[in-house]
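Before a colleague's protein record goes any further, I have to sign it off. My question to you is simply how this chain folds and whether the tokens agree. I do not need a full report, just your reasoning and any doubts. This is what I was given:
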Amino acid sequence: MKHALVGAGEYLPRMEPVDLELLKRLGKTPKVVCIPAGAGTEGPNRIAYWSNLGVDHFKKLGADVTAVQVIDKATADDQKLADQIAEANFVYFSGGKPAYLYDSLKDTLTWQAVETVLENDGIVAGCSAGAMIQGSKIMGMPSLGDGFGLLPNSVILPHFDEYPGFVSRASRLISGTSIITYGIDGMTALFRDGNKLEVIGSGGVTVITKDGRERFTHGEFLPDLI
């Protein structure tokens, strides 16, 4: 399985080196779909903003790219849109509201299409909320919600360099559990390929367990998944 969790900065010029590296890891001609569903409650102007920004960004990187207008539960169950996603080999979820994004995609044709991309050795990437849904749990208030579990036994904390208070909040929520917290800085991706976890980008990834914390930076590998 190949997937990437990005802390913040989707589609910005500073993310070009990270996304170029992710496209390189694909190992084939990239066919990208950008999905703005995390911003589905923000209105048509913001949905268009994220869609256009994603298309412009990946075109600049030389990819064949389309924005697929999955924005809610109904569109996530649209067969034509799901087929577009299944035909891609690189899926990118931009940010927004993580619980809304998860609820919109759960048990839908869109998520089945995402699983098809993964099964066909494609890459699924997500920034901020798009990263959070890839964990087994999503940090919310006042409790943990479910995630898709692409990264097992995990809670994903994006924007980690911006919000140090996330640590104490996450620690309270996962106290007494074996869940691992991954704090991902902006302009940084945690890339999984099989059981390998690698940091790509200008920031770092902080791994927090009941035994303490450890920070990893660009080019470094985290302990292998078991």
